[in-house]
């Protein structure tokens, strides 16, 4: 059925809400309440073309998967639709012009020597909102920054006169071979970084022999990502935000298992979204920039305007079950899948012990990249405490950490303390933002080089040569 | 009796001192010696119109309460009085013009995401002297800043896989229900922030279900504040500076009890006023600004001019009994009131133990917002020491802390360590300064949201789920 | 005998060296080798008028005391002498003009609220060389700055509900009453600060009831200083740099005893002068400033010019016996004087114990204001260690400290830990530089006010109420 | 044989590679694979004049030593060669012009009061690439900076009333007398600092009575350096990078022994080169500077250009045996030489103990100047740990440290803790850069003066008076 832009425009309320995406019209009225990102973010496009906003978040296939066929109302006439919101017509904001200029100026990829170099480029070429989304942390960003700084409190005790001409940085994660002890963590909204979104991670991981962990709401569908693997043997892991409805959650997990995902990382540190102010403020700041510093129109100062707090992250707040428990959730998950189960988001020694008692296959010591509770401890500190107080846990399950890893030496510190591997999230998104797939590969190669150099200088020819005695926590340094 | 401006002008000495307030003339000669703020601050208006200065500090009703009727000399002719000092005629200083401009430019209240955002606005819209009064600390401001920084040395150990979909941040203070574990501390001179002064706190507390503590010298009378409550059940607490004269003190306490105040917070950390240099310097700086950097007139450098040190706080130094003791004061206070007694200003574990032995109902660990003795310890540190060394004290009385609380996480750290609730003073004055009553409500809502989010991310569904094991004091961080 | 300027000019070598001081001619050839400040500093004036340089260091009476009458060659004709070097003819350097301007601009003394305020003024009004001399420390100034910062690691544990309306800060030092537990340390070269030099300290101490310690080479003679006392009872102490020649040293000590000095502070931390680079560099910098940044004339870069390292301090390096010992020097000193003996410059607990064993009457824990060995410990830290490890020492002798004291709270921390009193040196020189005698009195009054306020807020009505339990060394703060 | 520039130009590939050095032509084709600095760095000069690049690294004699006579093809005509690459013809870069200007402006040597003063001059007068080489550290430069900062955590406990008028700072190293407990460490590429390169160290060491350690690849041949000694008795030490080929290594060591070198310092902390990004980036930055900020030409952003990572250090990466072991290498070395063996690059207490067990004559606690593994511990900290945990090691061998030594007090701290002497590398290169041989002598004199002053102020008349009790590790300071 062919529809006109005027027809669509009349369905612009909560009672009847139509959207245009890619010149097709959808009735999303009944879906409003179910939208993981909330009702409001959809309603702002009610009766309009939502293509740009939609594409920056979701795979197109989601509309087919989640919306019944009778809600697919038909297509719209090209000429009418275009003016309503097609990208080509959008007046460029200052930020858009800044990004265009920075993209032209960026240095060649072969000048990238470290993850910091790549992050610097990404910070320049990313649109403000995307940058704010990636970079934001909870509250004042204390945990965000401590994640990085904490590594600087661990110094090495390198050993000399050991044979290191042959040095092998490979290991396994849950039985799957990886060329270096690093996996790609899911950081969300990968299309904000690059049009190919998560697929660039899949391909890069395949090329370099490392493993990608895919989120619950990636930028392409789980099937598309699975299909992007270089070989069917290339392992993928699934990071699970468990739906409060066990049936929905069960279907989701089993579908992933069928698609070939090899492990479930159950997220436990995000029953509610953290308070990410940088992210929330980004649109205000962009708006102010456009006004060129002109004051806002006058207002009644004593009356609160009724705020639309949110930010990109809020538009994406997950349908995560806030009532998961050790007693119920772990056995349930074990009952619906044969995949190894990893609990992601452990933040203290006591819960690591509980995880071992619960018989899970692994844990990720993580504070969610400093995006959830501010003043949650950096995972390298929690790892250190676990090593000191409950070394037996490392015998019972595989321990991973994420958050703040930037250098090969960071990886090596974690491995010395007993981690099996470390996850990196933001750095890969920055690499994708700056140089796409080539950037992700470049970053993996940089990490590999740094890890191998570090192992040799530590006197370790194999990953198993890395021991707790090789690191010490010092009182004397904090990276500034 | 109608008086002329010339008649009043003749009574401009310590022997005969008349003032005009709101076009009425008062003979305050006999009151000079009793004035809590000292003689000098009154004498500068002897024979003149003191309306502006008076109104910025005192409730009008005080003149009726404290000055006998025969000292009310009559009214003054409007035309004569106005030129002598009415506000409309005052030449605007640079600072006044700055404030006017900043008030126009301030962001809408719905952009306020945190107490820091609100403080930023307040710092811009407050007159210099008011800002200096609120922001000042003792000596070099070490305790002032440490109050805030100290919280950053306490990190969380969040627990996962606990049911937190239902989360209740309410608790009780001395038996009175409060929607969140925060009460409004008295910070003084609230009219400098907003014409409605303390009344805005009363109304906001009523709306949001929290409790206000009112000072000994509020900007409206204790009766006016009691009358501003939304319901007669809304609790108010009284912060007491005990007069050296027991009879005066007794009448004051019993009057408050009759007015419906529900607890006495006896101030013990201010037998003399701290050395608040920022406050004292503010008028000099304003004067310099007016002169536009022109040097002061020449002077005989070797001879001290005889300084009038003071500042806003000095004009208000209290008639506080410097000889209070555990042995005499507490039993005396118990003997004159049935209200619960809380000792406010405990700064070490030893005195907390003495308080428990003295049988008081509560203590506030406080260094008076860093305004008294510099290098007094931040109260979160004292709380931590009390938890470690004398946990039994928490069973014997209610422990509160104040000073440096800015975030929901600060509140939660205190509660984990055993505090029943925390007081916030400056932040509420800043909210009042920036947005009046709406600002105070906004800040309470922000705190509530941060507390609830934090509880969920800690794995706590109720305030009683917050335990000492959930926080750790770290060696590795100080907020910069 | 009347001499001409031409005659004098011929005696400009080490073999025959004449100087003009105050229009009188002296033959100092035989004195060259004995000059405590070295030969070079005199030779630069050989055959010339040295009045200005001489007066900025020495009392005029020294020429009479140290140079036999036959070396007083006579006076010089006024007209001839003046052009050769009288002040009026000196072309003003940039620094002189800067100082003149700053002196006109300085704020009135009644704006001075703290020692820091006074130091700020002094830093502006002092000539560069004088400022460099006063402010300089050894090597990199680590001990210099740590002296101040160290106090910030000691926090209070104030006690409440104690009677403090009556508060008495007076105490005794070696049996002599002092109005506050502070004495004036000798910092040297007081005439650089003010023409009245040390005499301003004598008069101010007399006025305020505190005690002055006078150095071995003060700016006025020991007799002149003794004569400047307000009453014969006003105590003075002597800081002794012991001459290597016991006979000279003996005469010096006994003369002071006859003049009425009441104690000997034997300096033990300066067998050689510390490396004060700021001081040495000051003349270079001034020279560069005069050249307005023009490069120095070309030079042969590979050949060292043969440096005249020095600085103001070097011109004054003392004839101090570098071979003093506990075994020989203390008994010897005891044998030649009945005055109490205080060892000044103790820097570790072990030497404090040795001092007690040696039976001296007191010790000053001091690192010489950070001017000698860099990385010598701040005295408040040494005091703290002494309290922890050898509290019995405080029973055997009086313990003083100096270095870094700026606030009343600093004084109170030292007293809590067991010090009998504290010395302040630089701050008094700064006060003298900025406002002369009135400035010194002002600083004493400021200290008194801060000490009394601090005692009251600590819950101490007398100096003896200050106890070790009232301070704690913290890990959490360093003043920035 | 006379060759033309055109003939040489044809041999510009890996298959046939000719170079011109000093107007002589060499066929280095067969040597390409053996070049310690790698093939690429030579190939960029294939068929061209490599004089400038060659001379900045190697002694001329190396071509005679390492290249058989039949590869010396003959000389080239002067007129033809000059235009191809002689220095006089090179267009000056901005950096060259900056250096010329700075060299004219530099202060006279007698203004140099400390090693920091000299370093400041060197930083200004050095070409960018040389500066980057000298100053660079591994990764983020944490160990680089900690090497310096670590000393600031050690404070002194000076002793007083000890005889120090006679003070002797001399000691022995491996039985050889040295005037102060400092030796010259090898820092590489000394010709970048001064045309006389390492020879300036040899002559300065001879003049001042200290000892030079010469590297494996110095800027002049080992024979030339030996010949530059002031007397045949002047000791030299050899720092050995052991060739993987034992025969080559043996010949090298034995040749040095014959030349009169007195000890072998076996390098063990550099089996691979550290990641020195500053060094690698220097040429990029210079290139950017030349382009005056113009953007690089456009490029396909998704394709990596295939990087030529490297830097000056990379051009010099050593043929170091990465499979050395305690079990094999030490006995082998002992078997081929009678010289004392020192293991250089020990970074933990455990390896110091192994060294003692292996019977070597000495160890250097060193992290290679922070140029190898980042987060390797500063050697003063390792020394402190060794003193605390294995004091018996100091009885079995001589312990040296290097890295971060800048002041006499740094040397004294190390000696107090048990070091026999300390090595200084960069500071001597900076002295050579700034003032050549005179600069090196100046620095040694500065160190001597600081050491003697420090010893006297510590109460130590001889090196053996320096004891562990004289230093303490503090928690309270880090140099900023």
Automatic annotation (TrEMBL), chains A, B, C, D:
Homotetramer. Pfam families: Cyt-b5, FMN_dh. Its cofactor is FMN; heme b. InterPro entries: Aldolase_TIM, Cyt_B5-like_heme/steroid-bd, Cyt_B5-like_heme/steroid_sf, Cyt_B5_heme-BS, FMN-dep_DH, FMN_HAD, FMN_hydac_DH_AS, L-MDH/L-LDH_FMN-bd. It catalyses: (S)-lactate + 2 Fe(III)-[cytochrome c] = 2 Fe(II)-[cytochrome c] + pyruvate + 2 H(+). This is L-lactate dehydrogenase (cytochrome). It is found in: Mitochondrion intermembrane space. In the N-terminal section; belongs to the cytochrome b5 family. Belongs to the cytochrome b5 family. It comes from the Eukaryota. It is an enzyme of class 1 (oxidoreductase). GO terms for molecular function: heme binding; L-lactate dehydrogenase (cytochrome) activity; metal ion binding. Its main location: mitochondrion. Residues 281-323 are annotated as: Disordered. The keyword Mitochondrion applies. It comes from Sistotremastrum suecicum HHB10207 ss-3. GO terms for biological process: lactate metabolic process. The keyword Ribosomal protein does not apply. Its EC number is 1.1.2.3. SUPFAM superfamilies: Cytochrome b5-like heme/steroid binding domain, FMN-linked oxidoreductases. Residues 107-476 form the FMN hydroxy acid dehydrogenase domain. Keywords: Flavoprotein, FMN, Heme, Iron, Metal-binding, Mitochondrion, Oxidoreductase. GO terms for cellular component: mitochondrial intermembrane space. SMART domains: Cyt-b5 (SM01117).
